[in-house]
Amino acid sequence: MLRSKQKPKVQDTGYVLFDVYYEDGSRRSNRRVPRTATLEHDVDGAVRQVIEEQDRDIAEKSGKPPLAITKIVRSAD
């Protein structure tokens, strides 16, 4: 019996934490981004997209416009 070569499964559960810096100088620490976003070809774009979506949801609930993001860095472990 021949066995096909299978790629090992990548664990796609869990989150990766990021610190987000905004144009007004504020910072939000430990923003949770699904680990699957860090497996994308364009990791920076995928992470930014997730965080911007979170910011839109927060802004909608608070009634305040979302701030522009200036920098996103992975939180220290």
What does it look like?
With 77 residues, the chain is α+β, with helices and mostly antiparallel strands. Helices cover 26% and strands 29% of the residues. The protein has 1 helix and 3 strands; from the N terminus they run ββαβ. The protein has one helix spanning 43-62; strands at residues 15-22, 27-34, 69-74. A 3-stranded antiparallel sheet has the order 2-1-3, covered by helices on one side. Strand 1 (15-22) and strand 2 (27-34) form a beta hairpin. The longest helix has 20 residues, at 43-62. The radius of gyration is 16 Å and the shape is globular. The model has no long low-confidence stretch (mean pLDDT 88).
Blueprint (SSEs and pairs):
Layout: E1 15-22, E2 27-34, H1 43-62, E3 69-74
Antiparallel strand pairs: 1-2, 1-3
Kindly summarize this structure in a few lines.
This protein is an alpha+beta fold and 77 residues long. It contains one helix and three strands.
Find the structural class using helix and strand composition.
alpha+beta
What does the average pLDDT come to?
A: 88
| Biggest sheet layout | 3 strands, antiparallel
Shape: globular
What is the share of helical residues? 25-40%
List the uncertain runs. Answer: none
- Rounded radius of gyration (Å): 16 Å
> How are helices and strands ordered from N to C?
EEHE
Number of helices: 1
| N/C terminus separation | 45 Å
Percent strand equals 25-35%
Strand order of the largest sheet: 2-1-3
